[in-house]
Amino acid sequence: MKNINVDYVQNPSMPPLLAKLPFWPVHVRQDIDKQCWSKTCISEQINLTEWQSYLDVLPKDPYVETRWKSMSWLYFNESSELKVLDNCPMAQGGAYNDADTMANKLRHYPALDKNFLARDDVQEFVKAWAGLWRIDPNEPILMQITGVKGKQSLDPLQGQGIHQDGSKFLSILVLNRDNVTGGVNTIYKDKAGEQVISKTTLAPGEILHIQDDEVFHHISSVQALDQQHSFERFIIIINARFNDTFQNRILRQHFADAVLDNG
Questions:
Q1: Rounded distance between C-alpha atoms, residue 149 and residue 94, angstroms
Q2: To 10 degrees, the CA torsion angle through 127, 131, 133, 134?
Q3: How much is the pLDDT for 152?
Q4: Secondary structure class of 14 (helix, strand, coil)
Q5: Residues 6+ positions from 11 with CB-CB distance below 8 Å
Q6: Taking every pair of C-alpha atoms in the chain, what is the biggest distance, in angstroms?
Q7: What is the pTM of this model?
Q8: DSSP string, 113-162
Q9: 197 in Cβ contact with 189 (< 8 Å)
Q10: How far apart are CA 200 and CA 184, in angstroms?
Q11: pLDDT single digits (tens) 227-244
Q12: Alpha-carbon dihedral sign for residues 190, 191, 193, 196
């Protein structure tokens, strides 16, 4: 059925993207075309300090004790207005998620804060991201804020291992990294992890773009640098053009007009 609880996320004061310098350095598109991934910093394009303030009220993940998370399905209509699709769950098939607690299950999370989504720099970010990957109108975009914190060593992937997300386009933006060691992002040619392409540790404000259907990725466990104090690491994950048939089936149930990947 078509979802009727759809909100516009409008900010009339938002300046047009083309009125500014290009959001992404030229090398980003070149890197993606050549090697299926790219890393850059967008600290000057966003107010990272203010984005971090939204982490203070981020809800706990209802499925994972040591994680905090919210997510929303977004898309642009034909008039380039950003809209939110309410109530559609996240759904990863077993082909894309090895964790028994998450594979082939519908997972419902609290929505992203509407005040956050209405920010000028957030809307610029989503619009620029959609432009980078050439996302079509009515094509669903999954945006998550998620992270871990504590004193004990934690696996941010909760057992998911080396994987793909079940989408064609994926980006990971680090929001904060406080008292953390570990958390190394590795990109591989193969799921077995025998062919390493790149290893990088993202700092706050840095973003890793990945062509998710071409390579595999993983992040190592995180620990406290000073074990007398808690650590935390929070990120934004944004995906589009899903090739996970399980997720696409759920999307179609909630959004009859969605533009979905056909293979």
A1: 27
A2: 120
A3: 87
A4: coil
A5: 118, 119, 120, 123
A6: 52
A7: 0.90
A8: PHHHHTSHHHHHHHHHHHHHTTPPTT--EEEEEEEEEESS-B-TTTT--S
A9: yes
A10: 6
A11: 999 999 999 999 999 999
A12: positive
Architecture field, domain 6-12+25-254: Sandwich (2.60)
Q: Give tens-digit pLDDT for 147-206.
A: 999 888 887 777 678 999 999 999 999 999 999 999 999 999 999 999 999 999 999 999
All residues at 6 or more sequence positions from 17 whose CB lies less than 8 Å from its CB, including other chains: 23, 124, 127, 128, 131
Give the DSSP H/E element, type plus range, for residue 168. Answer: strand 167-178
Give 20: exposed, middle or buried? Use CB within 10 Å, 0-12, 13-18, 19+.
Answer: exposed
- Here the tokens at position 70 are 């919210």
Burial of 49 (0-12, 13-18, 19+ CB in 10 A): exposed
Quote the DSSP letter at residue 252: H
Q: How far apart are CA 175 and CA 116, in angstroms?
A: 14
Phi and psi for 199 in degrees, rounded to 5? -130, 135
Give the separation between CA 247 and CA 81, rounded to whole angstroms: 24
Domain residue spans in the chain?
6-12+25-254
